[in-house]
Amino acid sequence: MSVVPTSQVPVFKLYGETRHWPTPDLLHCESIPERSRLHDWYIRPHRHADLVHVLHVASGQVELELEGSQHALQGPLVIVVPAMTIHGFRFSQDIEGHIVTLAQPLAEQLGQRLEEQASVLRHADYHLLAQPRKARRLATLVEQIDAEYRQPAPGRDRMLGALVQALAVELSRQADPHGLHGSAPGPHQRDRGHERLANFQALIEAQYRQQPSIERLAEQLGMSSAHLNALCRRLADRSALQLLHERLLLEAKRQITYTNMTISQIADSLGFSEPAYFTRFFKRNTGFSPRDFRLRQHAAESTET
């Protein structure tokens, strides 16, 4: 696998894809074979502006490219890929395992709840699972996340949150604080642009319900709105306003799907002055009115249960 220059690395919205985040959940889970088989077992180097990957390789081989370093690895192991990290994979055809993808808001929540124990999710690294007992513990957690994700049930959102929190704690225990395994690439060092993008995303997370102007957010970051927009387009392949709207849209989908709030209440909670404005915003970005989206989500749940 050859190393791709940073300037040529595409920004994807999901694992190996250009499509938008597919569900109202703050995480996505799928098996490694079901995705990589579609790409002939090779996921070319890419990065994500606002997603964190946790790959659990139960068995099989993977050629990993992580921030320009290449590694030939054998499962069982875990690979952590923070936002903006350049990564690519070539899997053996007998690969077994899962990939759990966390949306940035969930990663931020874990950071607030777990503090230092969540730092493992901020460092590009891999962790070999040499001890069978610990390997089984982590594999069980990932399997539980996958099962809960695929089969909607009462309390699903809370259960997924609890399981992914346990996963982060287990990962922090697996991580080698002294680098004794000697072969991992080490923490991903962000440049100033990446730090500013991360700061912008943190501001969005804190303020998106008030729908602040991009000019106001740029001012809080100590830069012009033109500079902020150029930064977002260069690193995230979206404008600053698109990133803000994507966070609003994600929360709207979650509230429509998982709460009994009226459309008017949801609109008000997300800073829209009129429900009609919210409906137009939602339909423009999804193709469905909020009510139609809710009906579709409930129909899908009824079909799966």
From TrEMBL:
Keyword DNA-binding in annotation: yes
CDD domains reported in the protein's UniProt record: cupin_HpaA-like_N
Record keywords: Activator, DNA-binding, Transcription, Transcription regulation
Residue stretches making up the HTH araC/xylS-type domain: 198-296
Domain of life: Bacteria
Annotated Gene3D superfamilies: Homeodomain-like (1.10.10.60), Jelly Rolls (2.60.120.10)
InterPro entries hit by this protein: AraC-bd (IPR003313), Cupin_HpaA-like_N (IPR047264), Homeodomain-like_sf (IPR009057), HTH_AraC (IPR018060), RmlC-like_jellyroll (IPR014710), RmlC_Cupin_sf (IPR011051), Tscrpt_reg_AraC-type_HTH (IPR020449)
Residues spanning the membrane: none
Protein name, per record: Helix-turn-helix domain-containing protein
Organism of origin: Billgrantia bachuensis
Taxon lineage: Bacteria, Pseudomonadati, Pseudomonadota, Gammaproteobacteria, Oceanospirillales
